[in-house]
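Data card: per-record layout.
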Amino acid sequence: MEKITIDNYLDNHYINRSNWLRAAVLGANDGIISVSSLAIGVAAASSVREPIMLATVAGLVAGALSMAAGEYVSVSSQTDTEKADIEREKQELKEMPETELNILIQIFEKRGLKKETAQQVAIELTEKDALGTHMREELGINEISQANPIQAAIASGTSFLVGGVLPLLVVLFIPVLGMEYWLYGFTTIFLGILGAVSAKTGGSSMAKAIVRISIWGTLAMGLSALVGYIFGVNV
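The structure for this 235-residue chain is written out next.
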């Protein structure tokens, strides 16, 4: 058995997967639901396959690009905010080091350390790495929590494509008559599988994840089908 050290103790934990797993689950979930909902809405108002396929492929491509771009922009905004706070912290450490040290001492006291111990810990950590300490303790920024825009964009866009391809396969091979019902059934299965995989990867409750993702997904598809019936025109 490998000896557990400070360098590998997080390898068996799930928190270091949180950033890319969140983006991947969001992308796959959105891919399955949005592409299926679009296909269901069109299928509910169409008697031929071509417009359903066209809408599904267009939704798949546009959705994947939009998902990746949106994830990149949103995570980049988060990163910019973190960088701005870090720069501000650098300036405060330079201009009022005593105040920053006192803040650090108060943080450790609130966590349960005695005043003398908190003061000693704060002094030693400040001497070793003042900025890194305040990033972790005051701002809550560390290597695990820091966002990666490129990683998030790739994970989200790719997972959207993977998720969206599943309902596209149903559109390609299932008879047009009653296709919306087939899409509804298969998509519920796809969502259940996604919930199970995400729960397994993240170490959470599999049953809870499956129920949660299936309920919201089927609700979205049902509303899309209703819109198709109400506003759709047979083509």
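Known properties of this structure: Residues 6-11 have pLDDT under 50 and may be disordered. The longest helix spans residues 49-95.

See the next section for split statistics.
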